[in-house]
Design brief:
The structure holds two protein chains of two kinds. Chain A is α+β, with helices and mostly antiparallel strands. Chain A contains four helices and five strands, in the order βααααββββ. Chain A has a single domain, classed as Thiol Ester Dehydrase, Chain A (Roll), CATH 3.10.129.10. In chain A, strands 1-3-4-5-2 form a five-stranded antiparallel sheet. By secondary structure, chain B is an alpha+beta fold. Chain B has one domain: Hotdog Thioesterase (Thiol Ester Dehydrase, Chain A, Roll). Chain B has a five-stranded antiparallel sheet. Chain B is globular. Classes of the chains: A alpha+beta, B alpha+beta. The interface between A and B is large, with 36 and 35 residues.
Chain lengths: ~130, ~130
Amino acid sequence: MDKQLKPSAQHVDFETILNYAALTGDYNPLHVDKEFAARSPMGGIIAHGTMSVALIWQALKNSLGIEALNRVHLEIRFVQPVRIDDDVTGGGELREGSDPPLYEVWVRNGKGQDVIKGTATVKPGGVSQ
Amino acid sequence: MSDEALFNYDHYQPGKLYGARDFKVDEATVARWRSIYPCDDEPGVMPAGMLAMIVVDAILALNSPRPPGGVHGGQTFDITRMPSIGEALRTEVSCLDKEIKKDRKWVRVRSVTRAAGSGELLFTGVMTSLVAQ
């Protein structure tokens, strides 16, 4: 098992957020309506949290192979919003001595702040790459 | 739209099943996904990021219309088998629990996704949300 997941990154612009909203059907105005979002406690547009979760899956796939994803138990918290024009990176580190293997996973913005934190456990069984 | 018409905090009943939503992992949808995430390019297997999309699609369909401005607080996924491209899925949605903490209304919704034809379990999840009303 790799100790460090190979990271995956994405630039999040407003067009990408709108495309994600159209794809998922999630038109929560916090994501797509600048005036509504500005008046909300968020103070402006935030990206869908699930947009960034994809980066964690990519980091897991990059390191463990696609077959291993069939055995993953993922638990995450959205701890900070992603804003327009943030650069976000998903990655993780193997918790030492964990059995089954457990990765501390995260997505961080360009300032190095966590926007998502959690764990990914690779359950026993099957064959991974 | 009146507040009474919205699927708000009061409508969530722990233990209640809200029904099922079908989702087809078709090539066109995967292509749109890959236009946002070009490196999700493995042939045959659905990009794992789409798991969240399937859950959100089911919840938006079965717990709606939602009050605007809710926030996603957390998520779990437990994978048994990643769906394949072309596969038809069925996702059941139920309320796990809910609570008010510091005047914030939190709900946890459980999803169970199976292959539509065989009923094979593919993945389960729990989505934690801060509902706006």
